[in-house]
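Chain entry —
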Amino acid sequence: MGDVTGEMLSKVFKQKYGGDMTDKPKEFGEFLTEQVIKPFWPL
């Protein structure tokens, strides 16, 4: 399941930021925090 989630996050990140998450680690961290974690925390 983790592979599927990682692939989905990678695909969305590439679409929004125009690059790979390994090439833009700071932007990926912000994306993960602001658009993935924060909207669902706390449940």
Observations:
- The CA atoms of residues 26 and 32 lie 10 Å apart.
